[in-house]
């Protein structure tokens, strides 16, 4: 007999997106450029952010999209392109971002959140990533996270 859990009321997707150079710190050095790329993209192509954590060389996010809209690829393409284009040329070339290798790793990893337990697991993963990497002792101490101000998190589901 097969059992199926009920999906959340709103479909949520967990992402991992990485820079092309592991160990780089570009995302935290240029976090305002990243925030601006996300703001502009959200204006043009709306999505809700349930969780977000920016690490030095990668980020994790949980998004919900408008009903019937599944274009996460287009949104990430815009965010990555806007962020990269906003960087000074010296930052792009210093990181090997000429045509053969961009600032970002190609693509991204995504996981569809299946139920409330899966959402809790991935929310916790976002929250604890700075602690796991030894950057801070508590999640609230990491300045580049939606968990720094838990009241700002948007309810999902």
Describe the protein in words.
With 157 residues, the chain is an alpha+beta fold. The protein is 36% helix and 16% strand. It has a four-stranded antiparallel sheet with strand order 2-3-1-4, covered by helices on one side. Helix 2 (31-44) packs across helix 3 (72-86). Mean pLDDT is 86; it is low at 1-9 and 151-157.
The coarse overall form would be: globular
Structural class: alpha+beta
Radius of gyration: 16 Å
Mean pLDDT: 86
The largest sheet is: 4 strands, antiparallel
Helix percentage: 25-40%
The tally of helices reads 5
Distance N to C terminus: 28 Å
Low-confidence stretches: 1-9, 151-157
- Percent strand: 15-25%
Number of separate strands: 4
Order of helices and strands: EHHEEHHEH
Largest sheet, order of strands side by side? 2-3-1-4
Write the topology of this structure.
Elements: E1 12-18, H1 26-29, H2 31-44, E2 48-54, E3 58-64, H3 72-86, H4 89-94, E4 109-112, H5 116-132
Antiparallel strand pairs: 1-3, 1-4, 2-3
Helix pairs in contact: 2-3
In short:
The chain has 157 residues and is of the alpha+beta class. The protein is 36% helix and 16% strand.
Notable traits:
single chain, 157 residues, alpha+beta, 5 helices, 36% helix, globular, disordered N terminus, disordered C terminus
């Amino acid at each position: 007999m097969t059992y199926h859990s009920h999906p959340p009321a709103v479909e949520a997707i967990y992402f991992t997106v990485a820079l092309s150079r592991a160990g780089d710190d570009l995302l935290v050095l240029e976090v305002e450029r990243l925030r601006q790329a996300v703001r502009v993209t959200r204006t043009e192509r709306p999505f809700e952010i349930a969780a977000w954590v920016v690490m030095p060389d990668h980020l994790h996010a949980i998004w919900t999209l408008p009903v019937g809209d599944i274009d996460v690829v287009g949104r990430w393409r815009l965010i990555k392109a806007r962020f990269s284009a906003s960087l000074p040329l010296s930052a792009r070339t210093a990181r090997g971002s000429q045509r053969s290798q961009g600032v970002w790793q190609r693509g991204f990893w995504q996981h569809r959140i299946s139920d409330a337990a899966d959402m809790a697991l991935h929310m916790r993963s976002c929250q604890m990533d700075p602690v796991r990497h030894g950057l801070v002792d508590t999640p609230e101490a990491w300045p580049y996270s939606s968990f720094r101000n838990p009241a700002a998190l948007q309810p999902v589901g």
